[in-house]
């Protein structure tokens, strides 16, 4: 365990609670879990890009995906004091409308109960019944606010099916702002398969995970910015996965494209009341530190501020390919990036490792 003075908090760490695993095992289209004979081993297939004959489908799925004791074991191995767990993608996006309310209620309560088994060590981001319609979603937001360990919600980029610039989402963003529940924005769908070309399956999962995921997040949040969400719901708080995708790096270019756009000017959208991408990065956005490199992390820190960046692991994804047990390279790389970018033991590094998350997400029981 890390010393009591500088707790380490992992804000990007997933679970599929047992009832969600049961749902996945009952399905034959993505997302699903099944074996591929002759191997009896179960595999989790969730990404559109990994559901092909030509790649090794999905990934092996063991108890690290659903057993909360494994999460605690992982935390202990990596000196993580507190984890803010979230349902992994693709959440409840695919659930039929009539089942959405019940599924979200059950899964959110189950995750909250799992947190209660380790008081003070586990908190959570809840999941919204997105297919259920506005009233059901807003009702679940109110319920999440009352659940002891819930500290926000995890959201993909499709929203109600039309993306995050959909005006129908505004009452939901408003409800989240009013409940002071931040959105943890996380990718899932990536980019259309045609972008990766004919040889994509030769490259395993690299292209969709390394590039598809971050671009999806960047596009999702840029569409929110362009549609004026942050002027209409000015205190909405978001935590962007993977250090904002490419947003810190591209913010200047996005700003320049906005300022030089004749259509936006003609529509009167370039006035003084417009919040710039830079304003939004500093007032509405937090960034996780799941970027695996000093340069990317420095861009995140410069864009949003060292008090708005938070350590994460993406567990149980990116396990070591060979050795069993011991420390994970993916986690160590993120620790190293924080140390190099902010200085080992500095107040800023302590903030990024845990202090910022404790303050922003109120992680005290
Ligand atoms: N990390 C995630 O959170 N989800 C994936 O599907 C892969 C990596
Ligand atoms: Zn993740």
List keywords for this structure.
single chain; about 375 residues; alpha/beta; TIM Barrel; 8-stranded parallel beta sheet; 3-stranded antiparallel beta sheet; 13 helices; about 15% strand; binds uracil; binds zinc ion; lyase
Please give a quick description of this structure.
By secondary structure, the protein is of the alpha/beta class.
| Strand elements, count | 11
Q: What is the CATH homologous superfamily assignment?
A: Metal-dependent hydrolases
The set of bound ligands, ions and cofactors reads: uracil, zinc ion
Helix/strand order: EHEEEHEHEHEHEHHEHHHEHEHH
Uncertain parts: none
Largest sheet properties: 8 strands, parallel
Helix content: 40-55%
Classify the beta-strand content into a percent band: 5-15%
Any chance you could write out the topology, listing elements then pairs?
Blueprint: E1 9-15, H1 18-25, E2 32-35, E3 42-45, E4 59-60, H2 68-77, E5 82-87, H3 97-116, E6 122-127, H4 134-146, E7 150-155, H5 170-179, E8 183-185, H6 206-226, H7 229-232, E9 238-240, H8 247-259, H9 262-266, H10 277-283, E10 285-288, H11 294-304, E11 309-310, H12 329-342, H13 347-361
Helix pairs in contact: 3-4, 4-5, 8-11, 11-12, 12-13
The structure holds uracil and zinc ion.
Family: Belongs to the metallo-dependent hydrolases superfamily.
Keywords: Decarboxylase, Lyase
Domain Amidohydrolase-related: 9-363
